[in-house]
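agent> Task received from the user: take the single chain below, predict its 3D structure, and emit structure tokens. No templates, no multimer pairing.
agent> Plan: (1) validate residues, (2) run structure prediction, (3) serialize to tokens, (4) report one or two observations.
agent> Step 1 OK, no nonstandard residues flagged.
tool_call: predict_structure(input=
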Amino acid sequence: MYPFAYTKPADTAAALAAGARGGRYIAGGTTLVDLMRETVERPGTLVDISGLPLDDVRDTARGLRIGALARMADVAAHPQVRSAYPVLVQSLELAASAQLRNMATIGGNILQRTRCTYFRDVSAACNKRRPGSGCAALDGYNRSHAILGASDACVATHPSDLTVALAALDAKVRLLGPDGEREVALTEFLLQPGNTPEREHDLRPGELITAVEIPPHPKPLRSGYLKVRDRQSYEFALTSVAVVLHLTGGVIRRARVAAGGVGTVPWRLNAVERRLTGERPSQRLWEQAAEVAAEGARPLRHNAFKAELLKRTVERQLRTVGGTR
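)
tool_result: status=success, residues=325
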């Protein structure tokens, strides 16, 4: 690990000032510290924001607001979250070990970096780590890599379970920086690699995530999260699916479906949503909707199985959340 400076600001204004000078924000540190230890990240200054008052979970006129510094375990245990958004709770509880969930924050989870082994191996070519150096995963062992949203520059998946649920809930990210406050839809905040895989999110210099907001959804709302992985203990997803359905009169009025483990970002399955909307739940509908789940997929040498796995996972989770007649 390389030498670095450390500061712990007393308030948000001081934190923003330190961030504007090039400091890297840290709270739980469950991702950044590992990357520093592996010399993938070499920040000159760490700005400890763990003491800032950004850990609230509350209802507002805009919906449910979750502070960026709220711990994953605390959000998963929050009575209001458990009652209204099972998909969010399940994504959090399946995301990591209990020890990590007690440390990791919501904002940090959104900003966590890929688990691609080539990204974390400083001797390997990686455009995300060193732009222009190439992508070793393209011709290497790519079983865990993306089949959706990839480019010739990068095929790494986004590792977060939480962001898949947030994508299905139409969540927005609240930001604060030198130019003031703004908000960005989560699905626009996390960026596909294109030709600039080193740009992973729409976070401007010195900006800080202050909260995530989930807008009001029509009720009754059914939701759930399913994660498929190589082992049931702590492991990243081969694929995962978040389903959010609003049904009245036996008809699906609104459908939101997102997938993880298969995309360079949490991937909204728009074709699946269109197939579901306005229809009555049935096993046949779930099968038909799942058939279009992998539209646009570009499998690599070792991960072609993910296309079929995604379809089966979507069908299973639609059946679980939506039921059948």
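agent> Step 4: summary for the user.
The chain has three domains: 1-53, 57-111+158-214, 221-322.
agent> Done.
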